[in-house]
Amino acid sequence: MSGTPSRVFHRLPNEPMPTAVAGDGCYIIDAEGKRYLDASGGAAVSCLGHSHPAVRKTMHEQIDKLAFAYSGFFTTEPLEELADYLIDNAPDGLERVFFVSGGSEALESAIKIARQYFVEIGQKQRTKLIARRQSYHGNTLGALSLGGNMARRELYQPLLSENAHHIAPCYAYRHQHHDETEEEYGLRAANELEAKIIELGPDTVAAFACEPVVGATAGVVPAVPGYLKRIREICDKYGVLLIFDEVMCGMGRTGYLYACEEDGVAPDLLCIAKGLGAGYQPIGAMLVSGRICKAIDEGSGAFMHGHTYMGHTLASATAMTVQKVIRDDNLLENVRLRGEQLRAALQERFGNHHHVGDIRGRGLFVGIELVADRATKQTFDPKLGLHNKIRLKAMEEGLMCYPGAGTVDGRNGVHILLAPPFIIDESHIAEIVEKLDRTLTSVLAEAKQVA
Ligand code: PMP
């Protein structure tokens, strides 16, 4: 670990951090030659692992031809091919793609296009947005206003939009009552949206946004069956646009190209990023329904939005190859198979662990919620800073996992998010479980001494 003070402002100046120098499949290698199994794909990004030969080949070839042609002047083959691929495989009704450089930009675009849509169709009074507590939609001001990650919002609250409102998340482990089925709970949770729309005034609400499977804020929480269908019905009833944020859960992570396919629900706007370029290039996108495109085409004619790097040539070519590898190597099948194996292996090892409250997920998107007491679901004291300790200890063990402290009913809950590359095999699963076990044993023993 190099401990020299750093001038990079997005890291703590004196926090020891390994220097990454190379990638090799599911591993990152540091300057001292130590190998780290990337069990979280960084922040659920690197879905093809590192230094993938086909992606490297495309990148070299594209740079040799043309790295960047500004999309205000030119279209390019990689850009058109990627748009076709995303739309050909998209949920019903999504007809065009707006490219950006990452997740926050995709959500900003969705907020702005929702607003423009209602202006175009003469419903200017629709300015309000609804999202859920325990959600994360990005760190730019619009996306941060929309999201419900209280820790990330707190400091910036005075700058955040007052147009954003929040309802409860769909979080069965914490909120499902003992005497209700999953479906009953899903309906109850979804109906909060209807109540909120009525409270705000139905003709003032523009859009509702949610992650079909919540990622970083709560440690992989899939919607229960029927929840998203009911959400769609409510949005339709009140003319509210539905935005799915699949920045983390989309592009194959759950075993489906788009996570909402599994729920059989199509949104009006669908935001993707992370797995789209698999970390080889920064790229995101917003898929837009025909209804919205038509209103804009027939109205002012253009979406009043854009960024310099949208439709970046190298990023488009790279993302296209990432998606071709996923398709041609049948990786979605591997995601479903290995996801089940990973969850089963975690269940076997940690299923009865006193401090493991819940193991959940879809495909290779897996969350482990840690609790001080399994029986009462009591959360750990936030002062213990367990999530940071887990990250550091896991790195020491040669494992990248993505621990976080979400908010559970106003208290801090600790979770570990796993999102390994789609190419993992059984040996990687065994390595994840072993290294995680050593990490948890050490960190939790230390926490016990402090407590
Ligand atoms: N939405 C979700 C669901 C995310 O997980 C993230 C990133 N963690 C974002 C939006 C923001 O993406 P970015 O960091 O690329 O701006």
From TrEMBL:
<dbReference type="InterPro" id="IPR015422">
    <property type="entry name" value="PyrdxlP-dep_Trfase_small"/>
</dbReference>
<protein>
    <recommendedName>
        <fullName>Aminotransferase</fullName>
    </recommendedName>
</protein>
<dbReference type="GO" id="GO:0030170">
    <property type="term" value="F:pyridoxal phosphate binding"/>
</dbReference>
<keyword id="KW-0032">Aminotransferase</keyword>
<dbReference type="GO" id="GO:0008483">
    <property type="term" value="F:transaminase activity"/>
</dbReference>
<dbReference type="Pfam" id="PF00202">
    <property type="entry name" value="Aminotran_3"/>
</dbReference>
<dbReference type="GO" id="GO:0005829">
    <property type="term" value="C:cytosol"/>
</dbReference>
<keyword id="KW-0808">Transferase</keyword>
<keyword id="KW-0663">Pyridoxal phosphate</keyword>
<dbReference type="InterPro" id="IPR005814">
    <property type="entry name" value="Aminotrans_3"/>
</dbReference>
<comment type="similarity">
    <text>Belongs to the class-III pyridoxal-phosphate-dependent aminotransferase family.</text>
</comment>
<dbReference type="InterPro" id="IPR049704">
    <property type="entry name" value="Aminotrans_3_PPA_site"/>
</dbReference>
<dbReference type="InterPro" id="IPR015424">
    <property type="entry name" value="PyrdxlP-dep_Trfase"/>
</dbReference>
<dbReference type="InterPro" id="IPR015421">
    <property type="entry name" value="PyrdxlP-dep_Trfase_major"/>
</dbReference>
